[in-house]
Amino acid sequence: MSIVPLSDEPREQLDKAHLWKIFQSHYDQHGLARHQIDGVNDFYENGIASILRDEPDIVVEKPNLIYRVSLSDPYLPGPTVMEEGLNLKSDRDPAECRLRHLTYDSPLTVTVTETIIEAEEAPLELSDGDEDQVEEKEEDREATEQLVDESRAIAKVADAKDVTYKKKEAETESPDQAGVRWKKPVVRTYTRVQLAKVPIMLRSSRCRLSGYTPDERIDHGEDEWDHGGYFLIRGRERVLVAQTRAIYNKVIVKKGKADKKLKYTADIRSMSEETGHSVSVTASIAEDNRILTFTLPYIKDQIPMGVVFRALGVETVDELTDVIGLYTPKAVRYIRTIVRDGFRAEVRSQESAIKFISKYCNQSGAKESEKPAYAWQVVDGELFPHLGVATHKEKIYFLGHIVKKLLLVQLGFRSLDNRD
User: The RNA polymerase beta subunit protrusion domain covers which part of the protein (predicted)?
Assistant: First the structure.
């Protein structure tokens, strides 16, 4: 059986005859602004809830009182306008917002959970034989203490001044809190509390026009050729403009700058998809193949890798090898170099490593006594916002991932990354 090749001529005629029909069918189905609308729909449906989940609770801690507020269950009903001078709310169409110079937005309401934990009037001083005399249910007591510890941890991360240095995630109880008996938590819940106002994109899932037929949209003052995809701010049309930028949240290994005598650098711009907050972290190896450093946010000089890992509680070769995940003899030699650089005359412990980093803090006007707490906040709290509310250990392992990619290039196991 012979195979007869198809002629290119009918194919060319088919393309010419149907090309514009295919384009027309696509735009009839999706419109010109679908990329804008899909993005904002995802924000309305998932992004707002994700932001509330990733943000830590608000905690205020006093010697005998812990006050905690958490936000949950976001609700975005749709475009609603508050009449000025009148305590009235009513729905509005985009056409009316244009004429009256109003913002086409929706109130964002949340459920607020308020937790109050108070101490007993007098601290309880426990001795070795007093545990059996405490008349309290064990489950309630453990649950209360767990809630207290969790609230304190959130407060420490949120405020650098309250941060105490942890050694390998072991915390000691402060003297003024030792032996305190806590009452059962008092929890109050408030529903549909307005948190903010969110602009509504025209023709999005929260827009009133999305449920109208073409004829109904015309009846409500809209142009039949208007595809939406923009906002109305004080009656004026505003659109999100797309832009090209370097990729975020990915480690890129490239050649170092010759003027800084760097052989290779591993860079990452970490950005939270919810808040937009971003920081840059760089790992580098010098041209002499011996000096390995980190460039951290808010720190004005390069810091030896060993000092940074020691500040985070990683001190031995075995610990760092497990963090980086490279076990070849050549890789272990570099890891030994990193650990060796962490042992300096002024760096003998985790606390002294924090103090070493604090010398290079880019914080003008800060007192010397405040800089160590600021440095700890940088290395433990400011790194990698794209991880969300990550644990201490997760950030250590992500630093190890950066070093691993750098060493793989240095050892010849992988090539440089193409930024394009």
Answer: 31-360
